[in-house]
Design goal:
Oligomer: single chain
Radius of gyration: 22 Å
Low-confidence stretches: 232-241, 347-354
CATH architecture: Orthogonal Bundle
Distance between the termini: 33 Å
Number of strands: 4
């Protein structure tokens, strides 16, 4: 759903830019409460993973494809404030390096794809987790529903922006019907990817999922037919580190490897059909005044490396470069805004982080 230059007029694009800048500012402040030395590098990894998965367009209808938006996934994994920043970093990298999503429409894209999806998904996710049992399965189901709803919500948001500042005269009802219709289908794919990813991380390290905090329950012991909490074992020098102190290096390395494989290899097999917005724009005439991207001459434009003739190698290299750039920029931003650890008393053992 990357909005190109020319779909929305300059005044509305400027207002959207202000809204997006405000959302990023709020995100930077809020991320300080969500991130620390241990989780900041993981947030950079989440941004890189979303970048990689967005390269994997999947078919949803005749001649139409979709891709992950990522707002729900980011919000559930690292928190809503950090989630907005993750999507903003991804969109910035895509716009500058790959000419994907207009530069003048960057504010529109951050608002629609980042703010709307993250806010809607996390609000729905938290509401569901409050009424559902606190189990891994319920958390995964809540993630599925939240992601599913977030995509058509973004389609409605784009339609509203188009209704205010669209550069073509297309009946708003037709745009809304077409956008919501196709993005409900895309939302199913988004929901599946989000639920699978969240479920996989919860199965391995539930302590690293922001939306699953407090999910762990005390061990139970059956005594005289009744279940009672198992008393905590006394701390010992040789006992394993507590969950909060466990290293995240293995998770980070595995996540980065997965992102590199997806962007560098699997992306070659992605659907070549236009995504939901592109298809609707072409069918309804929204793209009549589309403008050439300001970074169209970029060496990585259209997710290919300039002068590399082999399409597989060109696309794979572009994907790997994109993952590297996104994880570097994202990790730098999140490391800078993280909550600093307070100095520990002499003799106390520090926890290990990435």
């Amino acid at each position: 759903m990357h909005v190109p230059d020319g779909f929305i007029n300059a005044p509305v694009s400027a207002v959207a830019g202000v809204v997006a800048a405000g959302a990023v500012a709020v995100g930077l402040r809020g991320a300080r409460r969500e991130l620390d030395d241990r989780t900041a590098p993981l947030a950079g990894l989440v941004a890189a993973f979303i970048f990689a998965v967005q390269m994997l367009n999947f078919p949803v209808a005749a001649g139409t494809s979709g891709h992950l938006l990522g707002g729900a996934l980011a919000a559930i994994l690292v928190g809503p404030y950090t989630g907005v920043l993750c999507i903003a970093v991804v969109l910035l990298m895509q716009g500058i390096l790959f000419a994907d999503g207009g530069l003048t429409a960057l504010g529109v894209n951050i608002t629609v794809m980042g703010v709307v999806t993250t806010v809607v998904a996390y609000a729905l996710f938290r509401g569901l987790t409050r009424v559902l049992p606190r189990t891994r399965r319920s958390t995964t189901v809540a993630a599925f529903v939240a992601a599913l709803v977030s995509v058509p919500a973004a389609a409605v948001a784009f339609t509203a922006v188009y209704g205010i500042g669209g550069t073509t005269d297309v009946p708003l009802g037709k745009v809304l019907t077409a956008m919501v219709g196709v993005h409900v289908l895309i939302g199913i794919g988004e929901a599946a990817i989000t639920a699978l990813t969240v479920g996989a991380v919860i199965a391995v390290r539930p302590d690293l999922v922001h939306g699953a905090r407090g999910l762990a329950t005390p061990l139970k012991l059956r005594v005289d037919g009744a279940l009672v909490d198992l008393p905590a074992a006394p701390a010992a020098a040789s006992s394993p580190a507590p969950v909060a102190a466990r290293s995240t290096r293995k998770v980070w390395a595995a996540g980065l490897a997965a992102a590199l494989v997806l962007a560098g290899f699997v992306s070659f097999y992605a659907s070549a059909n236009p995504d939901g917005l592109e298809k609707v724009a072409a069918d309804k005439g929204i793209d009549e005044k589309v403008q050439e991207h300001g970074a169209a001459g970029s060496p990585l434009a259209d997710y290919g490396v300039k002068d590399v003739e082999n399409a597989r190698i060109s696309g794979g290299l572009a994907g790997v470069i994109g993952v590297g750039a996104t994880v570097a920029v994202g990790s730098g931003v999140f490391w800078a805004v993280r909550r600093r650890r307070t100095p520990e008393a002499p003799g106390l053992r520090t926890t290990e982080s990435v």
